[in-house]
Design a protein that fits this description.
heterodimer, A: 693 residues, mainly alpha, Cytochrome C Oxidase, Chain A, two-stranded antiparallel sheet, 20 helices, 64% helix, B: 116 residues, 6 helices, flat, binds protoporphyrin IX containing FE, binds copper (II) ion
Chain lengths: 693, 116
């Protein structure tokens, strides 16, 4: 065990009152969180909702609720990451040129380098690992079992465990804001900056353990989704009929399962360096700091495809629904997903072309990177041909999907530029790269926002408000254009990334444009919150039947909206790729089952939550080097897992009569909704024979 | 899903449990790792240390597969076996390409020699 700088005590480890930052901005954030926390707790107590929260959410193993909780965590972190972005943009617009003013103790702008560095590190880590990833995992959780006609995931208990481990990672990051500090070494953890000699504080440890713990959750979730897709498909759901989103979920989770362990190893070795004084990634003493970059990007590049493939899947569901036409080129779409997943494993060096690996190596990785463009291009054409001569309706999910298409074009083409070593040498580590991957991640964000709007009525039974959704879309899109086009430009002009102060005053106009852009984003956040509020308020006017959009195609739209806890009263038999279209064609879409059976369901359990709590103790103890806490938490986790393995009573049965009663009620309600004319639009019945296989 | 109402102990995967095989796997793996550590620490005195290390690693993997994971082509294990086989190319890509990109790096950048 290495000795660390500063005081240490057996009871509190490195923790002391000095760990509480005395910065007015952080104090503001702290007050905001405390007030919000008190309001939530007060509401729960006042409305007597604690029991409900415990029974229905905290101990649930229902894949839909777990999915919703993943998405809520993701949205909260998305907001936090957004505030980081706002602060960075504001710093860069203020700190431009030698004469720029300084506030709050900063020479220029209002953030000292020490804080600025933590903000961009937190922003990247949060957005990729604690916003995009959880929201995607959440959406896959909600949608995949429904799309394949299953009652839940293959391992519901493991599913809950994955959720709570992700929550622990997010909690550690939030905690770092108010207790100690966060890493200043970028979201990638630049070596040797992450080594103890250069980062003696707890920041890097927060970063490292937050990722380490949550990625255990992601890996478990990946195994679970793969098992679910392989083993839990309803009768007739052959591989050739699998909905395309489920296909992308399969490919993306294969990526996760094979690549996340690498991240675990990279961070684990870094941990050995920081805690035991080994020399894996140190500069000197036999360490090799580029080995870290190698391991990190061997996970990192597959990870970027991990986030984009589900977004492709979402687009592939939304576009046919709102074009009222089957997806063009189903087979090539599936093949392209797996080709992308496969190739994503052999391109990682493009993140460090400038390492100096030599022309042959660079050429190989350059070509491999460009090869990814082929399957991606196939997808783009498939979507275009799906829209072509379709009956397009531009409801909000469709707007987001088409927006994603444009982002993909810009991001993909700039990616191709970066894939050429000569170009890369001149713009590597410039904000051009930052603009490239943000455009790419915008594909993910647009896909997510489209998917949330699209599947929201399935989970909650009512649609989100359309006019506000449109405003959200347009303000968000203007923001995207105004932030990232100037960013590409200033990257070409030589602006390097991660700057807390710009020496070149010629960049000022671009910074102003970007600041205006982030202003539009701020407005879009307002519209999003307002959209949620208004939709919730007017929910009774916007209730929908099983097929919320009137032209949906896949199996999940067969279940009632909102979906009852057992999903399908009777496991459906699948006849076609677009099952709902097939049933509509046969006039079978509204038919009630004649015969019900008992449904065995997994029981709620508090064990995953308890393990999560111990994992938080473990992470916190490791960060602050409080050894009794780490030891106790670790032993407690193991004992809990062992104790749980003795619990035999993990299921219960919903009696057939009970199912029938619930279904009757649901159908009655659906009929009322239909009379009110809520689910307007969609005339697929007129085209009964379009359902291909 | 936990739809299965049979006794979990009757699952074929659980039936594979075998205490003696586990202990054997553990002992052999520990021995191989100790040997590998010794080779790594006294690398200069042994001919072809990299080959010896790779051989020990391959042996350790084989032992784990046979005794611990008990992979074979039976209907219960075939999925796991296939998954393992499919992971082999990834392993080759990851290790092979890394070795390729690093083997001339020192000469080109003098990274390591600068840092001693
Ligand atoms: C056609 C596909 C793509 C190509 C050819 C491509 C190419 C590249 C290249 C060459 C770089 C390295 C630039 C440098 O650092 O000098 C890069 C960086 C990056 N790309 Fe892409 N990319 C593609 C797709 C994506 C996708 C789908 C995503 C994510 C959704 C993504 C996210 C990123 C990220 C996060 C980075 C840099 C991260 C960092 O340095 O912090 N890219 N891309
Ligand atoms: Cu990459």
């Amino acid at each position: 065990m290495v000795n660390v700088q500063g005081p240490w005590s057996p009871i509190f480890g490195r923790l002391s009152l000095g760990a509480i930052p005395d910065n007015p901005i952080i104090a503001g954030a702290f007050i905001f969180s405390v007030v919000l926390g008190i309001l939530v707790l007060a509401y729960l107590t006042y409305a007597d909702r604690w029991g409900y929260l415990w029974r229905e959410w905290l101990t649930t193993v229902d894949h839909k609720k777990i999915g919703v909780m993943y998405i809520i965590i993701g949205l909260v972190m998305l907001f936090r990451g957004f505030i980081d972005a706002l602060m960075m943009r504001t710093q860069q617009v203020l700190a431009d040129g030698a004469h720029s003013p300084g506030f709050l103790g900063a020479a220029h702008g209002y953030l000292v380098p020490y804080h600025f560095d933590q903000i961009y590190s937190a922003h990247g880590t949060i957005m990729i690992l604690f916003a995009a990833t959880p929201i995607l995992v959440g959406l896959m959780n909600v949608v995949v079992p429904l799309q394949i006609g299953a009652r839940d995931m293959a391992f519901p208990y493991l599913n809950a465990l994955g959720l709570w481990l992700t929550a622990v990672g997010a909690a550690l990051i939030m905690l770092s804001l108010f207790l100690g500090d966060f890493s200043h070494a970028g979201w990638v953890g630049l070596t040797p900056l992450t080594e103890l000699a250069y980062s003696p504080g707890v920041g890097t440890d927060y970063w490292m353990w937050a990722i380490q713990i949550s990625s255990v959750g992601t890996t478990l979730g990946a195994a679970n989704l793969i098992a679910t897709i392989i083993k839990m498909r309803a009768p007739g759901m052959t591989w050739g009929r699998l909905p395309i989103f489920t296909w992308t979920a399969l490919s993306t989770n294969i990526i996760a399962l094979t690549s996340f362990p690498l991240l675990g190893v990279a961070l684990g070795l870094l941990g050995l360096d920081r805690y035991f004084g080994t020399h894996f990634f140190t500069a000197g003493m036999g360490g090799n700091l580029m080995l870290y970059s190698d391991l990190f990007w061997m996970w990192g590049h597959p990870e970027v495809y991990f986030v984009i493939l589900p977004a492709f899947g979402m687009m592939s569901e939304i576009i046919p629904t709102f074009s009222e036409k089957p997806l063009f080129g189903y087979v090539t779409m599936v093949a392209a997903s797996f080709a992308i997943a496969g190739v994503s494993w052999s391109v990682w060096l493009h993140h460090f072309f400038t390492m100096g690996a030599g022309p042959r190596v660079n050429t190989f990785f350059s070509i491999a990177t460009m090869v990814v463009g082929i399957p991606t291009g196939v997808k783009v054409f498939n979507w275009a041909f799906t829209i072509y001569r379709g009956r397009s309706r531009f409801e909000t999910p469709m707007m987001w999907a088409i927006g994603a298409l444009f982002m993909l074009l810009v991001g993909g083409l700039t990616g191709m530029m970066l894939a050429m070593p000569p170009v890369n040498y001149s713009v590597h580590n410039s904000v051009f790269v930052v603009a490239h991957f943000h455009t790419m991640l915008m594909v993910v964000v647009y896909g997510i926002l489209g998917a949330v709007t699209y599947w929201f009525p399935k989970v909650f039974g009512f649609r989100l408000n359309e006019p506000l959704g449109k405003r959200f879309f347009w303000t968000f899109t203007i923001g995207t254009i105004m932030v990232f086009i100037p960013m590409y430009t200033s990257g070409f002009m030589g602006m390097t990334r991660r700057l807390d102060y710009l020496t070149n005053p010629a960049l000022f106009p671009f910074e102003v444009a970007e600041e205006l852009g982030i202003g539009f984003y701020l407005v879009s956040v307002y519209y999003f919150v307002r959209q949620l509020y208004v939709s919730l308020r007017d929910r009774n006017a916007n209730r929908v039947g099983a097929d919320a959009w009137g032209s949906a195609r896949t199996l999940e739209w067969l279940a009632p909206s909102p979906v009852p806890f057992y999903n399908f009263a009777v496991t459906p038999r699948v006849h076609a790729r677009d099952e709902l279209v097939w049933r509509r064609g046969q006039g079978l879409d509204g038919v009630a089952p004649t015969h019900y059976e008992d449904i065995p369901m997994p029981r709620n359990t508090s064990v995953p939550l308890v393990i999560g709590a111990f994992a938080l103790g473990l992470g916190f103890g490791l960060v602050w080097r409080i050894w009794w806490l780490t030891d106790a938490s670790f032993i407690a986790i193991i004992l809990t897992v062992i104790a749980r393995s003795f619990v035999r009573d993990t299921d219960y049965v919903v009696k057939a009569g009970e199912v029938e009663r619930i279904e009757k009620n649901l159908r009655q309600r659906a009929a009322e909704v239909a009379r009110a004319g809520a689910a307007a639009g969609g005339i697929d019945v007129l085209r009964p024979r379009e359902s291909s296989p | 899903m936990a739809q299965d109402t049979h006794d979990p102990l009757q699952h074929p995967e659980v039936r594979l449990v075998n205490g003696r095989a586990y202990v054997a796997a553990f002992v052999v793996a520990t021995a191989l790792m100790t040997a590998a550590l010794a080779v790594a620490m006294h690398g200069g005195e042994i001919p072809h240390p990299m080959l010896v290390l790779s051989g020990a690693a391959a042996l350790a993997v084989a032992v784990q597969i046979m005794f611990l994971l008990q992979l074979d082509f039976s209907s219960t294990q075939i999925w796991t076996t296939v998954s393992f086989v499919l992971a082999v190319p990834l392993f080759v890509i990851a290790v092979g390409l890394s070795m390729w990109m690093f083997h001339s790096l020192d000469a080109r950048t003098m990274l390591m020699s600068l840092m001693h």
